[in-house]
């Protein structure tokens, strides 16, 4: 008799479970991660956050601007970030999300078009991370979902040179794009609107950049010459890897959303003022404003690293950043790589004899594109006068022009100063680092708490997480 009841019960269970997936699936909720949405998110989140970081903390390290208050970071207490100065979580959040895109591109044939861009972005963000901090979690990082929550620190050399490293991912990214034969287009691409040729140019410009960065550690001439011979890199401002901010929220530059007191914390640095003045460079009126107490529209800078508790600066005596950083951010963009930077890098390579090219022409193109990028008219006599390539030290001229052009990417200016020694930055007014200019960012406190054993090993290699220990590629880091 018991079996008579089992059959209808089983039939009922079968009837209920045959349509279980359909019944219990929300048609309005996605059942899988879409790489197009993640790609858009990674590009925007990284670009927006690092533009803010580059302007606030990076510009202080690169001495583009000076902080009037909340300025422990400006005095080189880099373990005390204020209004910026903690990019670590930005890198790891976006590298993690980008790794999901990369994995999807390899696991699902329909997403193969995303492999090239994901590899290029991984190389780009990994380079920015290691260039700031040195040795960092990499090979075991971005894998928290598989149980690796305390990743080891990889050496900077291996991050640059090893398999799945920066240079390797750029080459593999290029190969993935060139070999892609599918018909599915790249969606979510706010850098190049799905144009894969744009990603190829981006990748080759990055190869130039990172080969130059490690040029004190290896012979980069053959690879650089091959890239130049192929001539498929970012060559015009219209080809820049960048996306535009807007004038209004939510996609305007974050400085526009800060309370006015926080924005007013950043004024023209004395270093920047002196360099622009010596060059008779009219970009000073684009990048900054006349100081409030000026009689005839003059500009005035302040030496970095003041002791605000002993010498309070008067805001009206110093020049604030220009209107494109606050009121008119629609003319500003978040740039990942530009034509101006590419040409300055190639000019340096030509100067050093690593490529066959006209150094002065590359320099002049870089300057011209930099003025255009900042929506400033290039004076007719600039390249024959104070801003001429042959006016003084050629290498200093190239790097200084690249430094000026990178104001929204202030970390880049500081990184290139560490690599080349140019431009000549100043000793701070009241340094908290024994009058030494830092040559790396310190690992954040949360690493000591959450990844203690691996942190301890990395800290031991940097004299207790010192900001004065140079990274692998930096042969000029000894102060």
Automatic annotation (TrEMBL):
InterPro entries: SusD-like_2, TPR-like_helical_dom_sf. It comes from the Bacteria. The keyword Transcription regulation does not apply. It holds the Pfam family SusD-like_2. Keywords: Lipoprotein. This is SusD/RagB family nutrient-binding outer membrane lipoprotein. It comes from Costertonia aggregata. The lineage of its organism: Bacteria, Pseudomonadati, Bacteroidota, Flavobacteriia, Flavobacteriales.
């Amino acid at each position: 008799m018991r079996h008579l009841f089992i059959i209808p019960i089983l039939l009922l269970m079968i009837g209920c479970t045959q349509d279980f997936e359909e019944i219990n699936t929300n048609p309005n909720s996605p059942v899988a991660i879409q790489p197009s949405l993640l790609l858009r998110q990674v590009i925007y989140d990284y670009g927006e956050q690092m533009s803010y970081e580059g302007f606030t903390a990076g510009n202080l390290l690169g001495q583009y601007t000076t902080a009037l208050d909340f300025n422990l970071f400006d005095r080189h207490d880099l373990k005390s970030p204020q209004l910026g100065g903690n990019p670590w979580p930005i890198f790891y959040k976006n590298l993690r999300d980008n790794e999901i895109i990369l994995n999807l591109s390899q696991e699902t044939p329909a997403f193969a078009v995303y492999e090239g861009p994901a590899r290029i972005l991984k190389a780009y963000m990994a380079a920015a991370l290691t260039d700031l901090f040195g040795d960092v979690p990499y090979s075991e990082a971005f894998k928290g979902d598989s149980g690796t929550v305390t990743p080891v620190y990889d050496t900077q050399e291996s991050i640059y040179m090893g398999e799945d490293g920066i240079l390797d991912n750029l080459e593999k990214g290029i190969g993935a794009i060139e070999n892609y034969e599918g018909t599915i287009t790249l969606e979510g691409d706010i850098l190049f609107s799905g144009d894969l040729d744009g990603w190829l140019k981006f990748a080759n410009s990055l190869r130039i950049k990172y080969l130059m960065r490690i040029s004190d550690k290896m012979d980069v001439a053959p690879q650089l010459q091959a890239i130049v011979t192929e001539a498929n890199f970012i060559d015009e401002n219209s080809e820049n890897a960048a996306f535009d901010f807007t004038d209004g929220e939510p996609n305007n530059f974050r400085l526009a959303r800060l309370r006015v007191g926080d924005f007013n914390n950043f004024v023209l640095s004395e270093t920047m003022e002196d360099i622009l003045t010596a060059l008779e460079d009219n970009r000073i009126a684009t990048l900054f404003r006349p100081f409030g107490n000026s009689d005839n529209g003059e500009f005035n800078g302040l030496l970095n690293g003041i002791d605000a508790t002993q010498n309070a600066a008067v805001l009206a005596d110093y020049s604030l950043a220009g209107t494109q950083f606050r009121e008119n951010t629609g003319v500003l963009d978040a740039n990942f790589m530009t034509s101006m930077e590419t040409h300055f890098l190639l000019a340096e390579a030509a100067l050093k004899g690593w490529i066959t090219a006209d150094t002065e022409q590359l320099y002049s193109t870089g300057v011209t594109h930099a003025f255009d990028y900042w929506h400033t008219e290039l004076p007719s006599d600039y390249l024959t006068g104070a801003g001429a390539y042959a006016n003084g030290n050629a290498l200093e001229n190239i790097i200084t022009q690249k430094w000026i052009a990178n104001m929204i990417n202030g970390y880049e200016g500081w990184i290139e100063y560490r690599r080349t020694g140019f431009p000549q930055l100043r000793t701070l007014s009241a340094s908290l680092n024994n009058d030494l200019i830092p040559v790396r960012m310190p690992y954040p406190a949360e690493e000591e708490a959450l990844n203690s054993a691996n942190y301890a090993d990395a800290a031991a290699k940097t004299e207790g997480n010192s900001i004065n220990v140079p990274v692998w590629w930096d042969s000029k880091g000894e102060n």
